[in-house]
Amino acid sequence: MLRARIEAHFNRIWYQGRPPPLAYRWLAGAYGALVRRRSQRPSLVPKVPVIVVGNLTVGGGGKTPLVIALAQYLRSSGRQVAVVSRGYGGRRVDLPQRVDEAADPYHYGDEPVLIAEQAGVPVWVCRHRARALQAAVDDGAEVVLSDDGLQHMALARSFEICLIDGSRGLGNGRLLPAGPLRQPVERLKAVDLLLVKGAGQMPAGSVRVDLQARQLRPMQGGPALTPAAWHGKTVTALCGIANPQGFFDLLEALGMVVQPRIFPDHHRFRGADLDGLQGPVVVTAKDAVKLRRLSLDMDIRVLVVGLELPEAVTAAIEQHLEQWSEKHA
Question: Which residues does 215 contact at the CB level (< 8 Å), separation at least 6?
Answer without folding.
Answer: 224, 225, 226, 227, 302, 303, 304
